[in-house]
Amino acid sequence: MIRQLPKLTAPSFVRDLQSNTAALLEGAEVKHYDIITESTTLNSEGNTMQLELFQRDSEQFEGERELHGRLVLNTTRLPESQELTFGFAFAESEKKDFFDGLQVVTRVNNPWKQYTARDITSGPRPDIFGAAFTFKADKNADWLLREAESTSTCDSAGKCEFSVVFVRNFSTGDSADDISLLRGEERQYALTGFYKALGKDERITHIGQSQDMNVLMGAFDSVAASSFITIAALLTLPPSEPPLAKK
Q1: CA distance 189 to 206
Q2: pLDDT tens for each residue of 161-190
Q3: Mean pLDDT value of segment 126-145
Q4: Angle formed at CA 60 by CA 54 and CA 65, multiple of 5 degrees
Q5: Which of 93, 138, 140, 243 has the smallest count of CB within 10 Å of its CB?
Q6: Residue spans of beta strands (DSSP E) within the chain
Q7: What backbone phi and psi angles, to 5 degrees, belong to 236?
């Protein structure tokens, strides 16, 4: 489920031209997706997952475009000392024969090592309920976690929030294992989110996976954004006054 955001139609754009112009130039429009909800069929009761995505130019490498995001897993009644894995994988919407994604591994209430990121690839659609839920781990770790911005909190009742902030280049140079995002074109991809928690006896205590949902990734380039802004700015101009009729 995706929370519907206001579209950039002329009326809404006119009301906030300055802030929307800055967002378009930076390419930082944030998209919010409810990947797993309490009504998701294949989901332990009460657990949810949300994903935020936006893109912008790299601050380190000139000419590079980056995908930024935050993945949040909320759980209820999660026992302590669980080995938790969660993440998402996406594929081109038309083919769905090759999935690329991010898998995060952590241990509940582990104060020493918060999160470990894995760059994953899967031929068939991943199925966390399957007996052979395995991924190929890429040699190059192209999904990087921002550890200082990633958090985890749990109360005594097992109500937890696991929040990871990540970044990945649009193009990684690894066409065999990664899906390159297109700069200058926003495209739809099929995405599935998943999670699983295991106790010390390897027994599953919490598990869930979403159905495939369409997400938008990729971005307008600066020329396209500038053109759009120019058109939108023209829409904000007040109508010219009609000439006075001659008496």
Answers
A1: 27
A2: 999 999 988 877 766 677 878 766 778 899
A3: 75
A4: 35
A5: 243
A6: 31-36, 48-57, 65-75, 83-92, 99-107, 116-122, 136-137, 144-145, 151-154, 160-169, 187-198, 204-209, 213-217
A7: -85, -10
